[in-house]
Design goal:
Chain B: It is an enzyme of class 5 (isomerase). Chain B: Its main location: nucleus. The complex is a heterodimer of chains A (about 375) and B (about 800). With about 375 residues, chain A is mainly alpha-helical. Chain A folds into four domains: about 60 residues, Herpes Virus-1 (2-Layer Sandwich), CATH 3.30.40; about 120 residues, no CATH class; about 35 residues; about 55 residues, no CATH class. Helices cover about 60% and strands about 5% of the residues of chain A. Chain A is flat. Chain A starts with a helix and ends with a helix. Helix content of chain B is about 50%, strand content about 15%. An eight-stranded parallel β-sheet of chain B has the order 6-5-7-4-8-13-3-14, with helices on both faces. In chain B, strands 17-18-16-19-20-15-21 form a seven-stranded parallel β-sheet, with helices on both faces. In chain B, helix 25 links the parallel strand 17 and strand 18. In chain B, helix 13 crosses helix 19, helix 18 packs antiparallel against helix 19 and helix 22 packs parallel to helix 31. The N and C termini of chain B lie far apart (about 60 Å). The chains are: A mainly alpha (about 375), B alpha/beta (about 800). Bound molecules: iron/sulfur cluster and zinc ion (ZN) (2 copies).
């Protein structure tokens, strides 16, 4: 059993005295305290050496009879021993329950999972229902070995890529700093040189020239500085471009990492996971986007339509000599007549707004488009 | 007097107007018409506030939109002054128009200044007043009362509920004092009257923080519509205000208190679980549903509100792992413990928010998402628990705010952990500075929300700097010069002592006995020739102390003592105000006095030395910032990388705006006069960075003087100033009557006409204008690098 909360509450304050040998930091300024994650009782380094050097022994704290080993002793990270313990437990639980947000159906399911995980940790920390919770955890761990591993790998990958990005950024910042200093120094040197030049020419020249020389000096300076400025701009643009491309690269590697999170399935413990989807096999490419080119929705084409206007043509061999077929004419005319009926403007607009894909036009529009071109050429 | 700007009739409450006031108003109107932001630099002592108010009120009254004015100022006394001006203006308008307009204007300041509750108002600290007031006014307290429990309420607050909610105070202008008096007479709380009447006011005057500090702005200023006119007066330091409002310092002590707060909360939760579990459950289910508690009944009793959060976050549900109250407490505790471990540093560390977050996650498994919701979750919890003594939770709230900020912004912030408070300290007292580097973050919502934001002050040069730093575009940038009938102030740059040795406060020579003596001589000579008061500004307290003790050793102080009383500003506010009082007395009774103060201290910012209170101001050294500071270094780097502002440019700009502030202290009106001495050889090149009205008044021959020459010039000047000078002499030149104004407008019209004709005649005539300016600006500044060398050393 973990020690009760009350007994640990005031532990943080009595930093100064070892509860086992009662020696105090006052006498021994570099006294170090160690704890063992078995029972989290604190004692000084020399006590640990003294008691546990010859192998496992019982905890010297009066009410505690845990058997402790020397190699498990470590320094305390957090001042509050409760937090220390909680973090240890949390580490263990988090390693098992390491589902990721993208594996869940909805945000709600993810949040429920988070809460459930907190609940489990709290149970373990406060010692309620420990046996059952542990059993559940073990069971889950065995059943979901693969996904746990995969997620761990992902996490490690993310961490390392983040690290890499950080170092890269730092390096870039350093370079930029360097460049600025360089620039600054160059400027300064130029200025000094320019000044000296003017001075020496003043010294050599005739008194009447003084004003001209000074003016020239000024002009040179101006020219240089404007040249410098354009140079600076160029460098800056380059730097900015560099930075952008870096960012893009980093972004890409990030997405590929996230994409790999694949296998999942509802387990007994966790609810709301996404079903595993087997990707549908890809269909052959369809240039009409699902539309059948010869399909007629509104009419059926007949072979013969009575018309006094067309009668002479039907008879006239001259007309048909070149291969002219009246059926062509029928199909074209009818298509044109019905062309507009396939367009449902509201539908089309709402569809476009929803999907924002203008690649697949509606059937009617496509038919109309397909029909106008032969009509024009005939 | 009454005149027109374009079609807008303006009533100006004085019979005469300064030419620059007229120009200022014209530009203001243009800005308002165009709908955009502007930066206007108006010389100090030329009636900026009154011109601003009379134009905007005229604008409000004339056009049908009735755009509301939100006028922000820095201090309570400035707010009071503006309200008084507004009151006079409205009185004048009533007289002129012959009827009273339907107009309301109120000022708002903290509860501490406006409270009437007999025991609450006696509390010294503002936060305690706030907290106690909340415990007397919160919605749930009232509910308890209605249920018959024995709880105390504030009568002044209760009485408000008996009044019509949109008419708590009658129309008109209330100064803060006036409001207090009205509240006392009618037994109603002035603070809440002002707060609740804000939507019904034409003009609101309050402090910057109500707009800039996101924690307050959210609560107080949320309801204003887009077309409000926002004015930031005395805005030369606005970037620092922005940065401070988002920066947080955390110490070991505050963490200890935060832990205590968290433990208290835990206890309360347990109590509530046994007594009233329903409430916790209902909070929980609300959070599960992702329902934002729709700003319940009284938004006023909210305990904390969130620092700037992106809108999408506000619509999201609280993450699952902090939904339950007990989980949230354990989360907070873990985070606080983590911060405690960070406090055990041995050397200074600076860290970006992303790397901090990774470290948090490695050690405590706290993710970014729940951290972002920290502040909000805490608010909700505190509200559910119906806590009364909220002031105990202040440190916890700070930690929560920090958590939210650090996880919301990747850029523009930096964490700096310093184990020691100061360079010399040996006992570790670690501080975690979470500093905002980007002034634009805090002010961005203001620029986005309001169509016209006006930034104005006496010293804003160089004007381009502000739009750059704050990330906005202007439709108007203007700096006005001062029209004077006589040369009433004498700015000079003293570069050498009487022995011709150069003087400067740069690090190499600042403690050189020769330099110190020369500085001493300047002060001594001026104390001999100047009547009444002299104000001397030093770059820092440290330097002031060392130089004064050296003067003591050289016997300079004793000689000064023969002419003037010597008084010194200290970091302690009470001591300083006592010194100031003595100084005033000595100036009034003819003994004369010298006040030694610091260019970045309280005196340089808020205290006027008009007339005999300041006949000379001496700026000893260029008031650069302390460049060794980590925070400053980080900010400089940020400015360079993101806004293309070079370190030197920024440091120099910052030093000169403070110098200009100091100089402006002695000239508070057109009938005032004074000498302004800039004593450092580096000022010679930097003078172009002074506000236009000062640098224009500086003669070329007075930019490179030695002490004795400066003294001779000043003597001459002071003698001239002592001649009688009648108000009549200013007429038509530096003050205009209505007739002068008309004449000016006619002339302007003629000129415009001519310009138009000329422009037509020669198509394009805009070449060859910008040449002259470029040459002056390119003068390279090689003196500053003494101070900058250390910057590169990092
Ligand atoms: S309601 Fe007003 S008077 Fe009452 S305590 Fe609060 S601030 Fe003071
Ligand atoms: Zn021991
Ligand atoms: Zn033990």
């Amino acid at each position: 059993m973990p020690p009760s909360r009350e007994s640990m509450q005031n532990r943080g304050d009595e930093d100064e005295v070892c509860p086992v040998c009662k020696s105090s930091r006052y006498l021994n300024p570099d006294m170090q305290f160690l704890i063992n994650p078995e029972c989290y009782h604190k004692m000084c380094e020399s006590c640990v050496d003294r008691i546990f050097s010859s192998g496992p022994a019982n905890c010297p704290v009066a009410t505690c009879h845990k058997t402790l080993r020397k190699n498990r002793f470590r320094k305390q990270t957090f001042e509050d021993i409760n937090v220390e313990r909680e973090v240890d437990i949390r580490r263990r639980v988090m390693q098992i329950l390491n589902r990721r947000e993208e594996e869940f159906d909805s945000k709600r399911a993810w949040d429920d999972f988070l809460e459930q995980r907190e609940e489990i940790i709290a149970n373990l920390v406060h010692g309620t229902d420990v046996a059952k919770t542990e059993a559940d955890l073990q069971k889950y761990a065995q059943e979901n070995m693969r996904s746990i591993r995969a997620n761990q790998a992902l996490e490690a990958q993310e961490a390392s890529s983040f690290q890499a990005r950080q170092t890269q950024e730092q390096e870039l910042a350093r370079l930029r700093r360097e460049a600025v200093r360089q620039e600054y120094e160059n400027e300064r040197r130029e200025l000094l040189a320019g000044r000296e030049d003017v001075l020496s020419r003043l010294a050599a020249g005739r008194p009447g020239d003084a004003a001209t020389i000074a003016r020239e000096g000024q002009k040179v300076l101006l020219k240089k500085s404007s040249a410098r400025r354009s140079e600076e701009d160029r460098i800056r643009q380059k730097q900015a471009a560099l930075r952008n491309s870096d960012a893009r690269k980093a972004g890409q590697s990030g997405t590929t990492a996230a994409d790999k999170a694949g296998d999942a399935g509802d387990t007994g413990l966790i609810k709301g996971l996404k079903r595993i989807k087997t990707p549908e096999p890809e269909k052959p490419y369809d240039p009409f986007g699902g539309m059948v080119p010869d399909k007629r929705d509104y009419y059926t084409l007949q072979d013969f339509y009575p018309s006094s206007y067309l009668d002479p043509i039907r008879q006239d061999t001259r007309m048909q000599a070149g291969g002219y077929d009246l059926r062509e004419y029928y199909s074209r005319t009818l298509l044109e007549a019905f062309a507009g009926l396939g367009c449902f403007i509201d539908e089309e607009v709402s569809e476009r707004e929803a999907a924002n894909t203008d690649t697949a036009a509606t059937e009617g529009a496509a038919i109309a488009a397909a029909s106008t071109s032969p009509a024009g050429s005939a | 007097m009454k005149f027109f700007i374009d079609d807008l009739p303006v009533l100006f409450p004085y019979p005469r107007i300064y030419p620059e006031q007229y120009a200022y108003m014209c530009d203001l109107k243009k800005t308002l018409d165009a709908g955009g932001h502007c930066v206007l630099e108006m010389p100090s002592g030329t009636g900026k506030t009154v011109s601003l108010l009379s134009l905007i009120v005229a604008y409000q009254m004339h056009y049908p939109e009735h755009r509301k004015l939100i006028y922000c100022s820095r201090t309570m006394s400035e707010i009071e002054k503006a309200l008084a001006e507004l009151k006079a203006l409205m009185k004048f308008r009533t007289q002129q128009l012959g009827y009273t307009e339907d107009f309301r204007a109120l000022g708002l300041t903290s509860r501490k200044n406006l409270c009437l509750h007999p025991s609450v108002k006696r509390e010294k600290s503002g936060t305690i007043v706030d907290a106690r007031c909340r415990s007397l006014t919160a919605g749930f307290v009232k509910e308890k009362k209605e249920r018959g429990e024995d709880v105390e309420l504030c009568v002044y607050h209760e009485n408000l509920d008996l009044l019509e909610p949109h008419n708590l105070v009658p129309p008109g202008v209330f100064t803060l004092d006036g409001l207090l008096k009205y509240g006392e007479d009618h037994k109603q709380c002035p603070y809440f009257s002002a707060r609740r009447m804000m939507p019904f006011c034409n003009v609101i005057i309050y402090s910057y923080h109500y707009l800039l500090d996101p924690k307050i702005a959210e609560r107080v200023s949320r309801e204003f519509s887009k077309d409000c006119i926002v004015v930031f007066d005395e805005a030369h330091n606005i970037d620092n205000v922005c940065i401070e409002s988002l920066s947080i310092d955390i110490t070991e002590n505050s963490l200890r208190k935060a832990t205590r707060g968290a433990n208290n909360l835990e206890r309360k939760i347990n109590e509530m679980k046994s007594s009233d579990a329903e409430k916790l459950q209902s909070e929980y289910s609300k959070l599960v549903e992702g329902l934002r508690e729709a700003e319940q009944a009284r938004e006023e009793d909210q305990f904390i509100s969130n620092p700037v959060l992106p809108d999408d976050l506000l619509k999201e549900a609280v993450p699952g792992n902090i939904r339950r109250a007990e989980h949230f407490i354990s989360f907070l505790k873990r985070f606080i413990e983590y911060l405690k471990t960070r406090m055990k540093v041995t050397h200074t560390i600076s860290e970006t928010p992303p790397s901090f977050l990774t470290h948090v996650k490695d050690l405590t498994y706290i993710e970014r998402k729940p951290l972002r919701f920290c502040a909000e979750r805490l608010t909700s919890l505190v509200r559910t628990l119906e806590l009364i003594n909220i002031e105990d939770y202040q440190p916890l709230q700070e930690v929560a705010t920090f958590a939210t900020l650090v996880s919301t912004y990747d850029k523009g912030f930096l964490l700096i952990l310093e184990p020691f408070e100061s360079e010399a300290a040996t006992v570790p007292n670690p501080v975690l500075h979470f500093t905002c580097l980007d002034a634009a973050i805090a002010i961005k919502p203001v620029f986005e929300r309001f169509s016209s934001v006006i930034i104005t002050s006496g010293t804003l040069s160089p004007l381009e700097m502000y739009p750059k730093m704050l990330g906005f575009t202007t439709v108007m940038q203007e700096s006005y010069s001062m029209t004077l009938a006589r040369r009433s102030f004498l700015p000079m740059v003293v570069t050498r002592g009487s022995d011709q040795a150069q003087i400067s406060s740069s690090f190499q020579i600042r403690n050189d006995p020769g330099v110190v003596r020369n500085y001493g001589n300047i002060v001594l000579e001026f104390s001999r020739i100047t009547p009444d008061g002299i104000v001397v500004f030093f770059p820092s307290y440290l330097y002031m102390e060392s130089i004064i003790s050296m003067w003591q050793g050289m016997g300079i102080l004793d000689s000064i003592w023969n002419y003037k009383l010597i008084l010194v500003e200290t970091p302690d506010a009470q001591e300083s105000s006592l010194a100031l009082e003595t100084y005033r007395t000595a100036c009034c009774n003819g003994r004369g006095a010298i006040l030694m103060c610091v260019a970045r201290g309280k005196v340089s910012e808020g205290i006027d030395f008009d007339h005999h209170y300041g006949r000379a101001v001496i700026c000893i050294g260029v008031p650069f910032q302390y460049t060794e500071s980590r925070i400053l270094k980080a900010r400089l780097e940020f400015l360079r990388e993101n806004y293309r502002i070079r370190e030197n440019d920024f440091l120099s700009f910052d030093a000169m705006r403070h110098a200009a502030q100091c100089l402006g202290r002695v000239l508070r009106g057109k009938d005032d006069y004074g000498v302004m001495v800039l004593a450092d050889k580096r000022f010679q090149k930097k003078r172009t960075q002074l506000p236009k009205w000062i640098s224009q008044a500086m003669l070329e021959s007075e930019t490179n003087l030695s002490t004795d020459m400066a003294v001779a010039t000043a003597k001459n000047f002071l003698r001239g100033m002592a001649q009688p000078f009648k108000a009549k002499d200013q007429d038509g030149i530096s003050t205009w009557s209505l007739a002068d104004l008309e004449r000016h407008r006619e002339k302007q019209m003629l000129e415009e006409e001519r310009a138009r004709r000329q422009a037509l005649a020669n198509g394009h005539g805009a070449n060859g204008v910008a040449n002259g300016a470029a040459a002056a600006a390119d003068e390279f500044d090689d003196d500053i690098d003494d101070d900058l060398m250390m910057l590169d050393a990092q």
